[in-house]
What we know:
It is built from 1 helix and no strands. By secondary structure, the protein is an all-alpha fold. The chain has a domain of 40 residues.
Amino acid sequence: xxxEKMTPQQANSDERDNQRVFRWGIGAALIxxxxxxxxxxxxxxxxxxxxxxSTPTQSAPLVAPSGTAPQSAPSSTAPQTVPSTTAPQTPPAxxxxxxx
Length: 100
């Protein structure tokens, strides 16, 4: 292994080159960092805009009034009937058939 001695002029030149590369590296890193911050800021503000629904939404389900029956599509073979507005009749109570 052969080791060569560096002249003082070569040592100064290498040191200047190293400093120059270090400064360019720090500058490039700062520029990349600032660009990344700007990109993230722009993406975040674009997503926080007002959201417009593509279809209208219903806030609560519709409830039919208590006196109406649900409507079904009329069938061509079945006769149409009108729902009754009178109260349904209750069946008579069963007779007591146990012991007496």
